[in-house]
Amino acid sequence: MMVFTLAAHELRRLFLSPLAWAVLAVVQFILAWMFLAQIELFMQWQPLLQQLDSPRGLTDIVAVPLLGNAAIVLLLVVPLLTMRLISDERRGQTLSLLLSAPLTMTEIVLGKYLGLLAFLGIMLALIAAMPLSLLLGGGLDFGLLAAGLLGLALLLASFAALGLFMSALTPQPTVAAVGTFGALLLLWILDWAGGLAESGESAALRGLSLLRHYESLLTGAVDSRDLAYFALFILAFLVLSIRRLDSDRLQN
Amino acid sequence: MTPPVRLENLHKRYGRIQALGGVSLSAREGEVLGLLGHNGAGKTTLMKLVLGLTRPDSGRVEVLGRDPCGGDARGLRRRIGYLPESVGFYGELTGREVLRYFARLKGIGRGASEPLLERLGLAPAADRPVKGYSNGMRQRLGLAQALLGEPALLLLDEPTAGLDPDATRDVYSMLDELRRRGATVILSSHVLAGIERHIDQAAIIGSGRLLASGNLEELGRRAGLGVTIRAGGDWADERRLAVLAERGALVRRRSATEVELRVPGAIKLEILRVLLAFDGIRDVAVEPPSLEMLYDHYGPSTRPAEAPCATS
Q1: What is the mean pLDDT of chain A?
Q2: Min Cα separation B238/chain A (Å)
Q3: E-state strands within chain B
């Protein structure tokens, strides 16, 4: 129950800050622009697509690229939202009150995490509304769209977990943001490095890549290995955040 | 009856820094215990140990009959109010929202915050964002959150820091009220003169060591500081002062009509008899040693030199 009190508080604080509103507006604007560009492309390709035996549909040409682009935009934006989660509490000297409240470290971390997830959920719903609006003039492959949205949801949850951990490491929100962005970018580059050769190490690096697992879901294939990867990724960073906060409490 | 707070031979180090070195202390129910010491003496560490925010390296902490780091830490913390030394709040929220949030975290109904806002004089500003509050208002808000749920134990780290004289007086009267209600209060303060009349026991800490503890009378007796006698009346005759000095009193003329005598406890009655035998004495006041005098006696001058300062 306390987890939800903390989560509601976190969500409310997010909406009280201009940063959250700016992030929502900018992300929506950029993605709407990309979405309209993809629709334009689809319109141009339509005469050619009609000549094919099994042409790619609206979901393939408009929705999936939109979700792919959303991942890149959100990789840049999520660190700005996660940076303040714990480091701001530390900097604003509110952490001591929170730690002395009748809460466990797990509740504090989960509350903050769920609060941010609720905000990211709103963002995801706004992104999902774009491809769903295509239903007004055409049909959608709901299976493919659902797999893509599931992938984006898991990716955002992973970004948030890593960002939360970085925020627990430092009292400086900007350092947390840069750290999160760097770590996420590294996971991106891991995928590139993994693609250069076919050695065992390369396969391992590809296996660690967030994007590789996300791309798999974007093809519509819901593989339990991808789901397990995201679940383990999120769990690992949440546990690390709890451990970090707990050791901080005991040491300082 | 088991005291609400019992600390036995506590040791705590932060790396190479010794924050506490063998502190044993207890606070009884309905008692106000003042923790006195220089910055870095270990007062805040002691409070954190009582709260269960940190564990001792060795020794035992028992708070309201339980281990604060044990299984039922949540239940225990509901019964403890804490005001940290540097208290911060979410600037974008109003005072009322902040208090309601902490009330919910303590599992208390939101209605509990309203009387506290009134009591601490924050009601007129309750719907203003906290970022616009003065230091004193923030401190009062901190005190209000510590008082949520009528805690059995209150830990107040510098509760009057940043407060104006009126607000300071309000805090002290609230302390007296809490004491009457049976709550145990542990507070640290550098304003010795301010807390003197509001504490039952003092614990003087220096460099992580307990230098002295007990009620003020006990501490005064042990220190052998005696009493201060102020006598008002006709002090034109210098020979009277000489007589008192001869008997062992340390004499200081404060004005033509008032003299202050520092008298060891053993000769207190004898000096009083001599004093009252003088003609023209209109007023006599006997004062035990002040907290400042006790702190000067037990504290800085006898602080162990080898122990490094702790971060508290």
Answers
A1: 89
A2: 60
A3: 5-14, 17-27, 32-36, 58-63, 80-83, 153-157, 184-188, 201-206, 209-214, 227-233, 250-255, 258-263, 281-287
